[in-house]
Amino acid sequence: MHITKQDQLNHMLTLRIVExxxxxxxxxxxxxxxxxxxxxxxxxxxxxxxxLATVFYFIIRAGFLDxxxxxxxxxxxxxxxLPLLVISGxxxxxxxxxxxxxxxxxxxxxxxxxxxxxxxILITAIILATVFGDSxxxxxxxxxxxxxxxxxxxxxxxxxxxxxxxGRFFLQKYTELTDQLKDENLQDPLTKLLNRRGLSLHFExxxxxxxxxxxxxxxxxxxxYFKKINDFHGHNIGDLCLIEVANILKNALxxxxxxxxxxxxxxxxxxxxxxxxxxxxxxxxLRRKVSENTYSELELxxxxxxxxxxxxxxxETTLKIIKRADKALYKGKxxxxxxxxxxxx
Length: 345
Ligand SMILES: Nc1nc2c(ncn2[C@@H]2O[C@H](COP(=O)(O)OP(=O)(O)OP(=O)(O)O)[C@@H](O)[C@H]2O)c(=O)[nH]1
Description:
Structural class: alpha+beta
Distance between the termini: 40 Å
Number of strands: 7
Catalytic activity: 2 GTP = 3',3'-c-di-GMP + 2 diphosphate
Protein name: diguanylate cyclase
Radius of gyration: 32 Å
Keywords: Membrane, Transmembrane, Transmembrane helix
Strand order of the largest sheet: 2-3-1-6-7
Strand content: 5-15%
InterPro entries: Diguanylate_Cyclase (IPR050469), GGDEF_dom (IPR000160), Nucleotide_cyclase (IPR029787), Rev_trsase/Diguanyl_cyclase (IPR043128)
Order of helices and strands: HHHHHHHHEHHEEHEEEHE
Helix content: 55-70%
Bound molecules: guanosine-5'-triphosphate
Largest sheet: 5 strands, mixed
Shape: elongated
Domain GGDEF: 214-345
Mean pLDDT: 86
Number of domains: 2
Low-confidence stretches: none
Number of helices: 12
């Protein structure tokens, strides 16, 4: 089974929740009898719950469960408090105020759907407990009027709905933040293209998909005499030129092509399902577009040299492809720059 970072996080969260349940039960068993006299049934049920929660804890620790199994198990572990609820006044029990925590836990561990399902199960249980309230015992011998029971159910349902909505918003924010972090991790901050890490992630995937019938092409694109721009006009103007070249390349390529900043003034474009013959035409277009443009307010001329290669049907690796394209690029540089050079091997 492939274990993702999310699975690890869910696993860790579930363990913490079960640990808290165990600690709460131990506190209830040890401390509560000292504070007031309680019916022995409570103690027995709490001891059984403690045993079940401990077994459950070790089952979770032993292996990774998928998020549905975790959510169901979590609900089951929280339902351990149900026998206690039934003998302590149902919705009127002080324990009932644990219930609204459950949809939030389900959202954190499972997701929106799990939180929704768990919330609806709890609301149904509360409605049933209110309708059949007369059959619920209260070993503490408290008397509750129907009005009080209904009003408690009302507030419990409201808090459970609140908890479901909160869980949903929390997850949305969390997902947005993690997506943003993921993007930032894979993006070059200056040009907003993929960075080296982003490139290798996409490149591996594309190479896996490539077959003999439809090879991919790769080009390394290097700005010519870029050092001179920096030296004569400063780093800031150099940066502006990099951004403009990046934009031209991105806009001229097709939707499925991948473009990344490989480092310094070097870019890599991956053209899936593209032969070297088709790639030469695309590379020529890129070269022409960059050379026809002028850069920054100083209207600087810039050119690029492109080294191009095609994936081989067998024993191909990302490193080998890049090496071939790099060799072609340096041949292009030696031949005078502002040109497209195809790899020989
Ligand atoms: N402004 C700016 N310059 C950068 C950045 N990264 C690298 N450079 C510069 O890019 C220049 C690359 O110079 P060289 O590798 O000598 O290449 P070149 O001058 O383009 O010469 P050829 O590639 O042979 O045509 C260096 O001066 C680097 O300092 C950056 O993020 N911003």
